[in-house]
């Protein structure tokens, strides 16, 4: 698992994403994270997962570089494989605390919202920037973001693609603890350890009740997200969005 650094302290498993500086994900990385979550589920001595990252960003989204599928069918299959691993992350039985530094953007926001709780800094930037790319939100964000911050506010963030910094994120419920940059990992670990001090069976049972039906809702919505992403990926507007982002310029969308 070269893309992850896994350790433990007490009853907490620490999973550190190791693709600096921005920790872009692909199917392989999500599979490794899901594997680590499932390993914790099978280990009675582990009670909580701490998900963190090495680098400037927690996760700046999906990796669109390298060898990408060249046909619409191949791109759809690639996205489905990626989301299958994301669903495995949501199915984990033990709580997840995320230490979120730098950017959690696009699919990276989806990864952050797969955690039960998020610890951030004043400079942490959260963004569902899909529409700025001529795209559709994915990673189950059309379920997880509204449930976390409300339908109207989630719609505002997804339709504008605007970025939310740490203090506002805390105010609207996008993160749960605000820490200094120097103390981010320590504060996240302290929260994980506080949860780990509770009855492990009680925590797991309570969490399961609170999340009842969540995975099923995400799985159903992912089908819609994948369908919309598949046709939008073939549009001129999506190509323009990707180019404009790479070139650091304003977009010129044509609705085609």
Question: How do the strands and helices of this protein lay out in sequence?
Answer:
Elements: E1 4-9, E2 12-17, H1 27-41, E3 48-53, H2 72-90, E4 96-100, E5 103-105, H3 107-113, E6 117-120, E7 125-127, H4 141-149, H5 151-160, E8 163-165, H6 166-172, E9 177-178, H7 184-196, H8 200-210, H9 214-232, H10 236-246
Parallel strand pairs: 2-3, 3-4, 4-6, 5-7, 6-9
Antiparallel strand pairs: 1-2, 7-8
Helix pairs in contact: 1-2, 2-9, 4-5, 4-9
Question: What keywords describe this structure?
Answer:
single chain; 256 residues; alpha/beta; three-stranded mixed beta sheet; 9 strands; 15% strand; globular
From the N-terminal CA to the C-terminal CA, the straight-line distance is 41 Å
- Spatial arrangement of strands, main beta sheet: 1-2-3-4-6-9
Which H/E pattern describes the elements? Answer: EEHEHEEHEEHHEHEHHHH
CATH topology of the domain at 4-182: 2-enoyl-CoA Hydratase, Chain A, domain 1
The count of helical stretches stands at 10
Low-confidence stretches: none
Biggest sheet: strands, sense, closure?
Answer: 6 strands, mixed
Roughly how much helix do the residues carry, as a percent range? Answer: 40-55%
Identify the overall geometry. globular
CATH class of the domain at 4-182: Alpha Beta
CATH H-level superfamily title of the domain at 4-182: 2-enoyl-CoA Hydratase, Chain A, domain 1
Strand content: 5-15%
Strand tally: 9
What is the residue-mean pLDDT, rounded to a whole number? 96
What is Rg?
18 Å
Structural class: alpha/beta
CATH hierarchy: architecture of the domain at 4-182? Alpha-Beta Complex
